[in-house]
Amino acid sequence: MSRPRTTTVAVVTGTRAEFGLLRPVIAAIEAHASLRARVVVAGTHLLPPAHTGRQVAAEFPVAARVPMQRDPDRPRADDALAVGRGVTGFARCFARLGPDVVLVLGDRVEAFAAAAAASVAGIAVAHAHGGDRAEGIADEAMRHAITKLAHLHLPASKRSARRIVRMGEPHDRVILVGSPAVDGLAGLPPLPDALAATLGDPAAVLLMHPAGLPPAAEAAWADAAIALALRVTTGAVLALDPNHDPGRSHVLSRLDAAAASNPRLRRCHHLPRDRFVALLKRLALGSPRGCIVGNSSAALIESAAIGLPALNLGPRQAGREHGPNVAHVPDLPTSPRRLAELARQFAALLKSPRARASSRFGDGNAAARIAEALARLDTADPTLLRKRNSY
């Protein structure tokens, strides 16, 4: 009797946030009898100051590293160069590792470069969190471009699944799995008092990423986020570093200046995902309730799943699916009066009855579904790699 074939899955991670979603997926792949994971660390994981690739290596064996970006804060033109380095690096990496499938998540340049290298090289591409809408910097275009490069689609919501089918992808290659961001949330306890105290026992989290805007606009949105976070609560506000998109330095400079002049604003470079989500849960279940302010996808996905009120600012998440926990500020508040009005409205929301947790992004079993979908994928099927628009 022949032994069952083992499918090797190269899992590509390029950022701290996306690794948080991929952690349960990698674990589920490793636990599956017919799958083997080869973790590839790339992109901003390899940049200072956080060097978050070390966190990946502490949890899983790293099969390869693919440097892309060279400057923690860079113009958008440098991202184009990083994509080129990524395609070359991933092509060499996949030639050496010989995976059957390359798994990418989301819309980042790292995922796009890996999907492009694999697809052109004749390797099956599986794409999680495809079909979402989120304008970001170049996110919307890259996410949908990855969809057209991919051969197996693992969307997080019914709406995203329908969007992928409308893009011409065959129904039988679109498997609704939910978001792995929700996996494990139900069993994760809120951050305990002792750990919260080391962070200043915050009443709000501020996480503001650059949004591909001119420098003055990035700084203005950062100032507005800081002002609103400090106004909606009288407690401490924990401000985390933004991601490594172009424009990062303009947000960082405003955060550091505000922290130097206001003791209620506490700064932290990075929180490991478990601690970050435990803090969000503490804020959601606290009395009074806390909140998250900024433009992080965590406000729309994880916070929706635990019922944490979120104030989403600016254009970065424009068009993204969200739950009832989110209040949007699409236009830059340019006057103290407008800031005060917005803060008053959101503070009233925090005192309203607790928002019901949303299940639009799944039931917390996405990782197991992703692993099963990968195990069922017949990578020996000669029609798998033949992309054809279904209409």
Characteristics:
six-stranded parallel sheet; Rossmann fold; 12 strands; alpha/beta; globular; 2 domains
CATH class of the largest domain: Alpha Beta
Walk across the major sheet and give the strand order. 3-2-1-4-5-6
Shape, principal axes of CA atoms: globular
Class by SSE composition: alpha/beta
Largest sheet: 6 strands, parallel
Please give the radius of gyration in angstroms.
Answer: 21 Å
Structure description:
The model has no long low-confidence stretch (mean pLDDT 94). It contains 13 helices and 12 strands. It has helices at 16-31, 53-59, 76-97, 109-120, 139-149, 158-166, 193-198, 215-232, 248-261, 273-285, 302-306, 336-351, 366-376, and strands at residues 7-13, 35-42, 62-66, 101-105, 124-128, 152-154, 202-207, 236-240, 265-268, 291-294, 310-313, 326-329. Helix content is 41%, strand content 15%. It has 391 residues and is α/β, with parallel strands linked by helices. The chain folds into 2 domains: 7-182 and 362-376, Glycogen Phosphorylase B (Rossmann fold), CATH 3.40.50.2000; 193-351, 3-Layer(aba) Sandwich (Rossmann fold), CATH 3.40.50. Helix 4 (109-120) links the parallel strand 4 and strand 5. Helix 4 packs parallel to helix 5 (139-149) and helix 8 runs parallel beside helix 9. The strands form 2 sheets. It has a 6-stranded parallel sheet with strand order 3-2-1-4-5-6, with helices on both faces. A 6-stranded parallel sheet has the order 9-8-7-10-11-12.
